[in-house]
# Entry
Amino acid sequence: MSGPSTYVPKSALGRWFESRLPVMGLVHSSFIAYPTPRNLNYFWTFGAILSFMLGAQIVTGIVLAMHYTPHTAFAFASVEHIMRDVNWGWFLRYAHANGASMFFVAVYIHMFRGLYYGSYKAPREVLWILGVIIFLLMMATAFMGYVLPWGQMSFWGAKVITSLFSAIPFVGDSITTLLWGGFTVDNPTLNRFFSLHYLLPFMIAGVVVLHVWALHVVGQNNPAGVEIKNVQRDAVPFTPYATIKDSFAVVVFTIVFCWFIFYVPNYLGHSDNYIEANPLVTPSHIVPEWYFLPFYAILRAIPSKLGGVLAMFGSIAILAFLPWLDTSKVRSGAFRPVFKVLFWVFVVVCCGLGYLGAMPAEGGYVIASRILTLLYFLFFLSLPFIGWFETTKPVPATIADAVLAKSGGSVALAGAAHEKP
Amino acid sequence: MLYIATGAAAAVGAAATAWPFISQMNPDAATIAAGAPVEVDLKAIPEGGIMTVKWRGNPIFVRHRTAKEIKEAQDVNLGTLRDPEPDAKRVKKPEWLVVVGVCTHLGCVPLGAPGQRGEYDGWFCPCHGSQFDTSGRIRQGPAPSNLVVPNYVFNGDTRLTVG
Ligand code: HEM
Ligand code: FES
# Structure
């Protein structure tokens, strides 16, 4: 959308360096001159919030690793040592544990945003799929991180989730043995989970680079769902407009994050995880972390082991097919009356599954989980048909028209004031 | 031809190099050695009682069944079972049932204290509600198969070795 070649460093040293490694030009074209649609709302700040959270998790994680011991005999005690003895240890651990939750809050908002505004549609399919891959890596990372404190929930969560693989016909048991490095979740398992928990965030960072790269090739979507046609009229330069707005959103988000760290640090956690792991006793009510609850509800809704596992993985995998399931020509949900209703039903279904995932698997809860699981999949399967019969509202021709329709004013050529074409 | 030969050699080399990296994940020699058999003193288990011993990191249930429990286990119509197995094939002596205490659904430890044994007098798994009978067979819930019977031998009348 904007070439890297227009940037010329001001200093002689800068020019000398730029002709050898044009990294400043890359930054300039990606984060300064980059044209962003002028109609973006605050839902578009969650990308920046997610980048911030990834950084926060890596920084807090690396310092925690300086005090943590990945051994079944010491892990639980070393986390208590972090909480009681290490300077600011309580803060670092609470920041990391709640940081994982905030990371998921942000990613879910980010994903629902993409769903509502049709950000997965051509030409953004690869961008969307990279996002699904990041989501999977995040889930793996958070799952393995939760095992590290070696509490009861850590242990039994690890046991149940690794046992999912035993549902695979014929090779399932060999796979679980391979994952455990033993006959059950034990020291070898804890050790490798620590190694992988350290590695995966950096793999996420790598995929984030691809994600942003793909974004900067196809450009950002926006609430109107129409592409930038005239950079002068439809877009504003990334800096200062997006930089300031993103920074402001990150600050507001951090206030919420801090509220959790300083006022209710254990609200999102589970008290059973302050009991050391005991391989002979399962707690009477095991639940995963809140961000896995909807998927856990789907797992439990199906009365067959293999079926439940397939439904659970399927509920995530189906996201990757979204670009081809949705047949509508109109991108933004704002102009799709039927889709809009279904979208909100889907949001409610997901929250409902989250609630049911935390409830015991009995009686009415099971029946409700089955109904909601069915609705979850029906949402995706209905998309091809809705695209065919839905009568959409008129879509503005350009982003500028969409802004004008809303404000009734005239569009100043903000782009022209700050960016030399 | 030369390309195919080179490519094939490279593929074999890559697979051979990958092998140690995969194989190191499997249980190491120390883990396997630590799984040595364990002895159980049967005198310590009263009739109707269940003792839990640890073998290879997993709980093993040794259950001293009452006459009523034995009868319940034997009287079941096998046709109604998800994983049909006669009780006689699951025990060596009717009063002693030995099973691995790991739910065949997703690995939780089923509850077996009196009053928590579920509708079939056997075990109840708190995780997703599987119910097992007095022979450790799956009767209800998501578990696909019966509790596993490990290798064990009786040493005389009062001792048993699992493993
Ligand atoms: C994608 C980013 C990350 C996520 C979502 C994440 C998630 C988690 C979670 C949920 C826990 C359990 C917290 C608890 O309940 O105590 C945890 C623990 C831990 N994580 Fe991370 N983590 C991330 C990155 C990292 C990185 C880069 C490191 C660097 C080594 C790290 C090191 C640790 C350590 C040492 C623990 C154990 C201490 C503790 O339990 O607080 N994490 N992580
Ligand atoms: S682990 Fe026992 S019912 Fe799921």
User: Anything to note?
Assistant: The interface with chain B takes residues 156, 159-160, 162-164, 166, 177-186, 188, 192, 279-286, 300, 302-306, 308, 361-362 of chain A (CB under 8 Å). The pocket of protoporphyrin IX containing FE (ligand 1) is lined by residues A 54, 57-58, 61-62, 64-65, 68, 79, 93, 96-97, 100, 103, 138, 141-142, 145-146, 148-149, 197-198, 201, 204, 269 (CB under 6 Å).
